[in-house]
Amino acid sequence: STLSAIDRGWRSYVHAKKRKGLLIVGRRTNLEYHGGLLHNDSMVEAMGRKGTLARADAEDFFIFSRGAVNLSAMPNFAVGRAGYDNWLVDYGVKHLETIDATNSVLALHLTAADGNAAGHREGPDKRYNVELMRRAQSWPKFPTTLHVPMLTVVEPGGGGIRFTVRRHFKKENVTTKLPARELPPELATPAHLLPPLRVVDFAWERTKNRRR
Asked: pTM for the complete prediction?
Protein backbone atom coordinates (compact mmCIF):
# COMPACT_ATOMS: atom_id res chain seq x y z
CA SER A 1 0.00 0.00 0.00
CA THR A 2 1.00 3.64 -0.13
CA LEU A 3 1.55 3.68 3.62
CA SER A 4 3.68 0.54 3.73
CA ALA A 5 5.73 1.74 0.75
CA ILE A 6 6.43 5.05 2.48
CA ASP A 7 7.19 3.23 5.72
CA ARG A 8 9.78 1.00 4.01
CA GLY A 9 11.39 3.97 2.31
CA TRP A 10 11.61 6.38 5.24
CA ARG A 11 11.38 4.49 8.55
CA SER A 12 15.10 3.88 9.12
CA TYR A 13 16.01 7.45 8.17
CA VAL A 14 13.41 9.00 10.47
CA HIS A 15 14.33 6.72 13.39
CA ALA A 16 18.02 7.55 12.90
CA LYS A 17 17.10 11.24 12.81
CA LYS A 18 18.65 11.54 9.35
CA ARG A 19 15.26 12.69 8.10
CA LYS A 20 12.52 14.77 9.67
CA GLY A 21 9.15 13.30 10.61
CA LEU A 22 6.64 12.44 7.89
CA LEU A 23 3.36 13.98 6.81
CA ILE A 24 1.28 12.32 4.10
CA VAL A 25 -1.43 14.47 2.53
CA GLY A 26 -3.83 14.24 -0.38
CA ARG A 27 -7.09 15.19 -2.01
CA ARG A 28 -10.38 13.36 -2.11
CA THR A 29 -12.52 12.32 -5.08
CA ASN A 30 -16.00 13.88 -4.84
CA LEU A 31 -19.18 12.24 -6.06
CA GLU A 32 -22.77 13.23 -5.39
CA TYR A 33 -24.41 9.94 -4.50
CA HIS A 34 -27.89 8.92 -3.42
CA GLY A 35 -27.64 5.14 -3.67
CA GLY A 36 -27.12 2.32 -1.20
CA LEU A 37 -24.02 0.91 0.47
CA LEU A 38 -20.97 -0.01 -1.61
CA HIS A 39 -20.24 -3.66 -0.83
CA ASN A 40 -16.94 -4.40 -2.59
CA ASP A 41 -13.82 -2.94 -4.13
CA SER A 42 -15.21 -2.93 -7.65
CA MET A 43 -18.16 -0.76 -6.62
CA VAL A 44 -15.89 1.68 -4.81
CA GLU A 45 -13.51 1.95 -7.75
CA ALA A 46 -16.40 2.39 -10.18
CA MET A 47 -17.70 5.30 -8.11
CA GLY A 48 -14.16 6.72 -8.04
CA ARG A 49 -14.04 6.75 -11.83
CA LYS A 50 -17.28 8.74 -11.93
CA GLY A 51 -16.10 11.28 -9.37
CA THR A 52 -14.11 14.48 -9.64
CA LEU A 53 -10.82 15.19 -7.89
CA ALA A 54 -11.11 18.03 -5.38
CA ARG A 55 -9.20 21.28 -5.83
CA ALA A 56 -5.51 21.35 -4.92
CA ASP A 57 -6.21 23.74 -2.02
CA ALA A 58 -8.81 21.39 -0.49
CA GLU A 59 -6.77 18.68 1.23
CA ASP A 60 -8.60 15.88 2.98
CA PHE A 61 -6.28 13.47 4.76
CA PHE A 62 -3.26 14.07 6.97
CA ILE A 63 -1.17 11.18 8.28
CA PHE A 64 1.69 12.03 10.64
CA SER A 65 4.52 9.83 11.83
CA ARG A 66 4.47 9.45 15.59
CA GLY A 67 5.94 12.46 17.36
CA ALA A 68 6.46 14.45 14.17
CA VAL A 69 4.47 17.43 15.39
CA ASN A 70 2.85 18.63 18.60
CA LEU A 71 -0.76 18.94 17.46
CA SER A 72 -1.77 20.60 20.72
CA ALA A 73 0.49 23.52 19.78
CA MET A 74 -1.48 24.20 16.58
CA PRO A 75 -3.66 27.29 16.38
CA ASN A 76 -7.13 26.67 17.83
CA PHE A 77 -8.71 25.94 14.45
CA ALA A 78 -12.33 25.06 13.73
CA VAL A 79 -11.74 21.75 11.97
CA GLY A 80 -13.96 21.46 8.92
CA ARG A 81 -13.92 25.15 8.13
CA ALA A 82 -11.73 26.63 5.40
CA GLY A 83 -8.04 27.21 6.03
CA TYR A 84 -6.91 24.69 8.65
CA ASP A 85 -5.98 22.15 5.95
CA ASN A 86 -3.84 24.71 4.13
CA TRP A 87 -2.03 25.56 7.38
CA LEU A 88 -1.25 21.87 7.98
CA VAL A 89 0.17 21.40 4.48
CA ASP A 90 2.25 24.56 4.81
CA TYR A 91 3.60 23.38 8.18
CA GLY A 92 4.54 20.03 6.69
CA VAL A 93 6.29 21.52 3.68
CA LYS A 94 8.33 23.83 5.90
CA HIS A 95 9.19 21.47 8.75
CA LEU A 96 8.68 17.81 7.75
CA GLU A 97 9.19 15.29 4.98
CA THR A 98 5.82 15.79 3.26
CA ILE A 99 4.44 13.54 0.52
CA ASP A 100 1.43 14.18 -1.71
CA ALA A 101 -0.21 10.74 -2.05
CA THR A 102 -3.19 11.90 -4.12
CA ASN A 103 -2.15 9.80 -7.12
CA SER A 104 -2.03 6.52 -5.19
CA VAL A 105 -4.81 6.95 -2.63
CA LEU A 106 -8.50 6.82 -3.53
CA ALA A 107 -10.26 8.84 -0.85
CA LEU A 108 -13.83 8.60 -2.11
CA HIS A 109 -16.23 11.21 -0.74
CA LEU A 110 -19.87 10.28 -1.34
CA THR A 111 -22.01 13.26 -0.52
CA ALA A 112 -25.25 15.10 -1.08
CA ALA A 113 -25.28 18.21 -3.26
CA ASP A 114 -23.98 20.61 -0.59
CA GLY A 115 -21.43 18.29 0.98
CA ASN A 116 -18.44 19.19 -1.18
CA ALA A 117 -18.57 22.80 -0.06
CA ALA A 118 -19.82 22.25 3.48
CA GLY A 119 -16.80 24.00 4.97
CA HIS A 120 -17.80 27.20 3.18
CA ARG A 121 -21.42 27.30 4.29
CA GLU A 122 -22.63 30.50 5.90
CA GLY A 123 -22.34 30.63 9.65
CA PRO A 124 -20.72 32.57 12.49
CA ASP A 125 -17.47 30.60 12.15
CA LYS A 126 -17.22 30.61 8.35
CA ARG A 127 -14.08 32.79 8.33
CA TYR A 128 -12.86 31.86 11.79
CA ASN A 129 -9.72 30.01 10.62
CA VAL A 130 -8.87 32.66 8.05
CA GLU A 131 -9.08 35.44 10.60
CA LEU A 132 -7.14 33.38 13.15
CA MET A 133 -4.24 32.94 10.72
CA ARG A 134 -4.37 36.59 9.74
CA ARG A 135 -4.17 37.78 13.36
CA ALA A 136 -1.33 35.37 14.09
CA GLN A 137 0.46 36.40 10.88
CA SER A 138 0.75 32.73 9.98
CA TRP A 139 -0.74 32.82 6.50
CA PRO A 140 0.42 29.72 4.57
CA LYS A 141 3.10 30.17 1.93
CA PHE A 142 2.76 26.59 0.64
CA PRO A 143 -0.98 25.88 1.06
CA THR A 144 -1.86 23.28 -1.61
CA THR A 145 -0.93 19.74 -2.57
CA LEU A 146 0.82 21.21 -5.62
CA HIS A 147 3.26 22.88 -3.21
CA VAL A 148 4.26 19.53 -1.68
CA PRO A 149 7.80 18.68 -2.86
CA MET A 150 7.45 14.87 -2.93
CA LEU A 151 4.67 12.83 -4.46
CA THR A 152 3.62 9.33 -5.43
CA VAL A 153 3.21 8.28 -9.06
CA VAL A 154 1.17 5.30 -10.25
CA GLU A 155 2.83 3.35 -13.06
CA PRO A 156 0.70 2.71 -16.18
CA GLY A 157 -1.20 -0.53 -15.96
CA GLY A 158 -1.32 -0.49 -12.18
CA GLY A 159 2.01 -2.29 -11.77
CA GLY A 160 3.06 -0.34 -8.72
CA ILE A 161 3.93 3.06 -7.35
CA ARG A 162 7.10 5.12 -7.23
CA PHE A 163 8.10 8.46 -5.77
CA THR A 164 9.31 11.60 -7.44
CA VAL A 165 10.29 15.14 -6.46
CA ARG A 166 8.51 18.37 -7.40
CA ARG A 167 10.81 21.39 -7.58
CA HIS A 168 8.55 24.31 -8.51
CA PHE A 169 4.94 25.47 -8.37
CA LYS A 170 3.70 27.68 -11.20
CA LYS A 171 0.48 29.67 -11.32
CA GLU A 172 -0.43 32.52 -13.65
CA ASN A 173 3.15 32.84 -14.90
CA VAL A 174 4.49 33.14 -11.34
CA THR A 175 6.92 30.37 -10.36
CA THR A 176 7.52 29.51 -6.69
CA LYS A 177 10.60 27.50 -5.80
CA LEU A 178 9.71 24.76 -3.35
CA PRO A 179 11.86 23.75 -0.37
CA ALA A 180 14.54 21.31 -1.50
CA ARG A 181 13.81 17.68 -0.66
CA GLU A 182 15.52 14.50 -1.83
CA LEU A 183 14.23 10.95 -1.85
CA PRO A 184 15.95 8.23 0.19
CA PRO A 185 18.65 6.70 -2.07
CA GLU A 186 16.88 3.39 -2.66
CA LEU A 187 13.76 5.21 -3.86
CA ALA A 188 15.51 7.78 -6.05
CA THR A 189 15.93 5.61 -9.16
CA PRO A 190 13.22 6.65 -11.66
CA ALA A 191 12.60 3.06 -12.73
CA HIS A 192 12.22 1.78 -9.16
CA LEU A 193 8.82 0.20 -8.57
CA LEU A 194 7.32 -0.69 -5.24
CA PRO A 195 5.27 -3.86 -4.77
CA PRO A 196 1.67 -4.16 -6.02
CA LEU A 197 -0.53 -1.12 -5.71
CA ARG A 198 -3.13 -0.94 -2.98
CA VAL A 199 -6.02 1.46 -3.22
CA VAL A 200 -6.81 3.03 0.15
CA ASP A 201 -9.82 4.93 1.38
CA PHE A 202 -10.93 6.10 4.81
CA ALA A 203 -13.00 3.01 5.53
CA TRP A 204 -10.66 0.15 4.71
CA GLU A 205 -7.56 -0.93 2.82
CA ARG A 206 -7.88 -3.44 0.03
CA THR A 207 -5.10 -5.28 -1.76
CA LYS A 208 -4.84 -5.60 -5.50
CA ASN A 209 -3.01 -8.72 -6.66
CA ARG A 210 -1.71 -8.03 -10.14
CA ARG A 211 0.85 -9.74 -12.27
CA ARG A 212 3.77 -7.61 -13.43
From this structure: 0.79
